[in-house]
Amino acid sequence: MTSQQIIECIANFSEGRDETKIQAIASAIQSADVMLLDIKPDADHNRTVISFAGAPAKIEEAAFLGIQKAADLIDMDVHTGEHPRLGATDVVPFVPIQGVSMADCIAMANRVGERVGNELQIPVYLYEQAAKTPERENLAKVRKGQYEALKADMGKDPKWTPDYGPAKVGKAGGVVIGAREALVAYNVYLNTDDVEIAKSIGKAVRHSSGGLRFVKGMGILVDGKAQVSMNITNFNKTPVYRVVEMIRREAQRYGVQIQSSELIGLIPQKAMVDAAVWYLQLDDFDEQQILEQKLASASSADKNLLVDRGFLDALASSAPTPGGGSAAAYNAAMAAALVAMVANLTIGRKKYAEVESEMVEVLKQADTIRLSMMQAVEADAAAYQKVMEAYKLPKESDAEKTARNEAVQAATLVAAQVPLSVAQTCASLLPLACEVAEKGNANAITDAASALTFANAAMTAALLNVEINLSGLKDEAFIAMAKEEKDKLRKAAAEYAVQMEKLLQERAQISM
Q1: Which end of the chain is less congested by CB atoms within 10 angstroms, N or C?
Q2: Whole-angstrom distance between the N-terminal and C-terminal Cα of the chain?
């Protein structure tokens, strides 16, 4: 069972008025067989945000095709608009959604950047977590001066030396490519046409001017109304409602009010739920109280039960795979799921507000581990399958015997590496299980203890599979490393088991 890998890309193009061009860019993106999530044109900004998601390879191709089409259609020498921009394709961020890491998105940003620079001859600048220098982490700093400064100062000012591509500017301008977490693009309209008020409020709320952390903001005039335009780069640490309330208070200073607001692109459900919970003052709210969420969970549970039965049926069959290694990985995935469960039962609870940020980080790590272990279920089975195939190779001649032995050794090495990786991942789960047991919802402490128990069992099973494969290996260096690692992992498991026993006694008055 392979967990689906999903990356989202939220590409910003410098065209918000010509529907024909917008559709042409969207069609180019969609031709890579990705899911088109949203197209948000803005005539005043003269800018369109196109959000799409899918498998990594397809997203990578779709992003390139979108940049290529925009370069063909948009002439920056005649472009005007309210929003800062650097080129025909202004910004292309990659966001990890499921089964991928931030490192994967950073690598993708580099690959796309290099290809755009080489094939399209467009200067590329990497930003946010893909930035090669601290000065380019902040998007506002990267494109300060916009297209006009880029064109005038390229080759003169070191600031404009691209990360990829030529040090020259064509009609497509430059493009900023990066990797980041999900953000909320959010605009608030005031009941005034005085843009100076919006600019003052934008300065007050944005972090770079001493405002709220994780908020980038500015004031502009849109459709005759003053607008505070913002990006909230971490809605967990600076929630949307906090931003709204600060704008409301700042607006009152100038005798104006919030008239309306809008989202650009998509918003994570949690950001909306957090806002609803805060404004409705729902203490101890559980997302399962949302009807649609409950129905979706019930449907998902039914579906997952069927999947679990399929795996268990395969495990119980006479087929050699999946076997103990796959079962170990699956057990590790369950351990990670239990850690995530305790974190989820802690987040949003008023009683545990002081540890919420820590639980959010634990949840993120646990979800990443769970997905990687689900992938390891198949990886282990595939590795053993390769071993069996290697043993079936012909061995009549000396050449065939040599080739067969080499294939067996190579396959056996992989068959040992996969469960060793599972065991190491289990070790990374142990401190997370103890952390949620110590700081998380006390009502779920036995779930945290169960997570540690499953992780230890998975580690033991995985190491058994390492041992059996080591017996057939001739790679002495790997054998020595694996045995040393095995001892280290078992020692860590014993230490965390003692820690969990102590936590259970202190918080729940029970013993393991």
Answers
A1: C
A2: 32
Helix/strand/coil for 22: helix
* Residues near 81 by beta carbon (within 8 Å), at least 6 away in sequence: 14, 16, 44, 45, 46, 47
Q: Which of 45, 79, 83, 207 is catalytic?
A: 83
Q: Which of 289, 335, 357 is nearest to 448 (CA)?
A: 335
Residue 365 token pair: 């790590």
Query: What span, in angstroms and rounded, lies between the C-alpha atoms of 124 and 160?
Result: 10
Selection from 115, 116, 97, 96 nearest residue 105 by Cα: 96
Q: Is 220 left (phi over 0), alpha (psi -120 to 50) or beta?
A: beta
Amino acid at 65: L
Measured CA to CA in angstroms, residue 174 lies from 88, 89, 236, 445, 452 at distances of 7, 8, 32, 52, 50
**pLDDT tens figures, 393-415:** 999 999 999 999 999 999 999 99
**pLDDT per residue over 322-358, tens digit each?**
899 999 999 999 999 999 999 999 998 889 999 999 9
Q: Which pair of structure tokens corresponds to residue 311?
A: 């795996």
The question of whether 45 is a catalytic residue gets the answer no
Distance CA 188, CA 419 (A): 52
Distance in angstroms (rounded) separating the CA atoms of residues 379 and 374: 9
